[in-house]
């Protein structure tokens, strides 16, 4: 059972970095730092959007409009951090002891 918790924690860590990568990519794309007509750049952007958007969309629906500032990735990172810490500090010790 501990292996399952460790696998879930690793998946949360990978998703954490995908969210950060998606936020950075969206800034680079918005400020024309990356070439938007490049096929590889489009594929990376599409992948990051498809991976993160299903988790970010419900948060965006609940948050009020902040005038162009999107804090939904920060909220999602906090939720992931809470889940990760809950698994490590509460669920794993309960299984071991």
Number of DSSP-assigned strands = 0
Structural class: mainly alpha
Total number of helices: 3
Overall body shape: elongated
The whole-angstrom Rg is 16 Å
The N- and C-terminal alpha carbons lie at a distance of 13 Å
β-strand amount: under 5%
Q: What about the largest sheet?
A: none
Low-confidence stretches: none
Spell the H/E element sequence.
HHH
Average pLDDT for all residues? 95
Overall helicity: over 70%
Q: How would you sum up this structure, described in words?
A:
The chain is an all-alpha fold and 97 residues long. Helices cover 80% and strands 0% of the residues. The chain contains 3 helices and no strands. It has helices spanning 2-30, 39-62, 72-96.
Salient structural properties:
single chain, 80% helix, mainly alpha, 97 residues
Layout of secondary structure:
Elements: H1 2-30, H2 39-62, H3 72-96
Helix pairs in contact: 1-2, 1-3, 2-3
Short description:
It contains 3 helices and no strands.
């Amino acid at each position: 059972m501990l292996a399952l918790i460790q696998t879930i924690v690793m998946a949360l860590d990978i998703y954490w970095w995908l969210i950060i990568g998606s936020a950075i990519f969206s800034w680079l794309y918005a400020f024309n730092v990356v070439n938007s007509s490049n096929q590889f750049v489009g594929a990376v952007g599409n992948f990051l959007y498809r991976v993160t958007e299903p988790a970010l969309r419900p948060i965006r629906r609940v948050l009020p409009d902040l005038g162009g500032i999107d804090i939904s990735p920060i909220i999602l990172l906090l939720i992931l951090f809470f889940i990760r810490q809950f698994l490590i500090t509460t669920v794993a010790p309960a299984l071991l002891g």
